[in-house]
Specification:
mainly alpha; 2 domains; two-stranded antiparallel ribbon; 6 strands; binds zinc ion
Length: 277
């Protein structure tokens, strides 16, 4: 759940550029849809409320979706794709994997009018993209966090991380905090559950901890649990120079810092988990 600056892009020009790159018959169809699409762009809030659903006929919807093909290599909108990837090298949905695909925040299947709308395109990892698929949710029942439009930073930490030992292996367990404002919590829980972030962060955390076991061992020998905790605090503070409190690794190091069992030698029980699919 990252908050990112949105793309700086003239989406009206992108639509016109796309239209002018299409064959004559398609160009005429897209010209006929232009006013509706521009109106949708103006109303775009990223918050999938039903009234924002347009009902295009199948053929029109298809022509709108096909515009997205122009963002691929050598297409007339390849600069749009490039600009989205320049926003973040990390996936905007999980913040844990590298961004390798573009995700449509409002999926093209239901919202073809936003197929090339810059604010609807997120740098995402393949796993999040697949798990998100055609889902989008609703304001009153929960939806995905929008990295450009939802500013989660004022809420500070979104995730809690605690440690538990099971069969001699220590696990980091992540959860959405209970103390968040209701509307923020609804979004965070939906986002966290649908993308299965709990298991994925836990697996990532194990790898992260294993890499640092030597460091914790050294700190433990020198100053016991207290020094292990201060090592975690140091790492958290350095992350906070680049990332917001809502970042999953910040939660991890806060969890380590406050876990007696981890700091008092429990780090030795870190075991690799099979990456969660
Ligand atoms: Zn991701």
């Amino acid at each position: 759940m990252l908050s990112l600056p949105g793309p700086v892009r003239n989406s009206e020009s992108d639509y016109d550029l796309a239209s002018s790159s299409r064959r004559k018959t398609n160009r005429a169809i897209l010209a006929g849809l232009r006013d509706t699409v521009m109106e949708s762009y103006r109303n775009y809030s990223g918050r999938a409320r039903m009234p924002e659903l347009n009902h295009f006929d199948d053929d029109d919807a298809e022509k709108l979706r096909e515009n997205y093909n122009l963002t691929y290599h050598k297409g007339s909108l390849s600069a749009l794709r490039q600009e989205i990837f320049e926003i973040s090298t990390y996936c905007a949905l999980c913040g844990a994997e590298e961004a390798s695909t573009l995700d449509h925040y409002l999926p093209q299947e239901s919202f073809p009018e936003f197929s090339i709308f810059a604010h609807n395109l997120l740098p995402a990892c393949d796993r999040c993209n697949r798990k998100k698929s055609t889902r989008y949710g609703f304001e009153d029942t929960g939806r995905f966090a929008h990295p450009y439009l939802d500013d989660l930073k004022p809420n500070g930490a979104i995730l809690d991380c605690a440690f538990a030992v099971e069969q001699d292996i220590i696990h980091a367990m992540f959860n959405v905090k209970h103390s968040l404002p209701e509307a923020v919590q609804r979004i965070a829980v939906y986002h966290f559950d649908k993308l299965e972030l709990g298991g994925r962060y836990s697996a990532k955390a194990s790898m992260e901890i294993i890499e640092d076991i030597g460091l914790y061992e050294e700190a433990y020998e020198l100053g016991g649990a207290q020094l292990v905790a201060s090592e975690a605090r140091r790492k958290r503070n350095s992350l906070l120079k680049k990332f917001p409190e809502s970042y999953w690794k910040v939660a991890l190091y806060r969890g380590i810092e406050t876990s007696d069992v981890f700091c008092d030698g429990g780090f030795r029980m870190a075991g690799s988990l099979v990456a969660f699919e």
